[in-house]
């Protein structure tokens, strides 16, 4: 089954879920606001995609925590992702040993249809 990670009120997550519903693709949503994400999962995503696509430096959480001022290296970014799941770019979609970061309809069509 396709696993979607994110938060219900995120526009990109909403688009991904609408895509899966439209094409009758079964999925399960892991909500960062209600469930605790293990750091091992972030390690797995970083191995698959690198840290850059995962770390959302445009998020409200990033600005509120004033992380830009800290000039974080990749290891420090990964530590922050473990502490603050809302820094993770959304959605993260896992399927068939693959990981997609963010919503791109064309990429989703290539991957799922």
Record keyword descriptors for this entry:
113 residues; alpha+beta; Glutaredoxin; 4-stranded mixed beta sheet; 41% helix; globular
At CATH level 3, the topology is Glutaredoxin
Report the average pLDDT across residues.
96
Helix content: 40-55%
Helix run count: 5
Taking the alpha carbons of the first and last residues, their distance comes to 14 Å
Strand sequence of the main sheet, in spatial order?
2-1-3-4
Let me know the number of strands.
Answer: 4
Secondary structure class reads alpha+beta
Overall 3D form: globular
What's the level 1 CATH class?
A: Alpha Beta
The CATH superfamily is Glutaredoxin
- Multimeric organization: single chain
- The radius of gyration computed from the alpha-carbon positions, rounded to a whole number of angstroms, is 14 Å
DSSP strand content: 15-25%
Contiguous low-pLDDT stretches (5 residues minimum) are none
Largest sheet: 4 strands, mixed
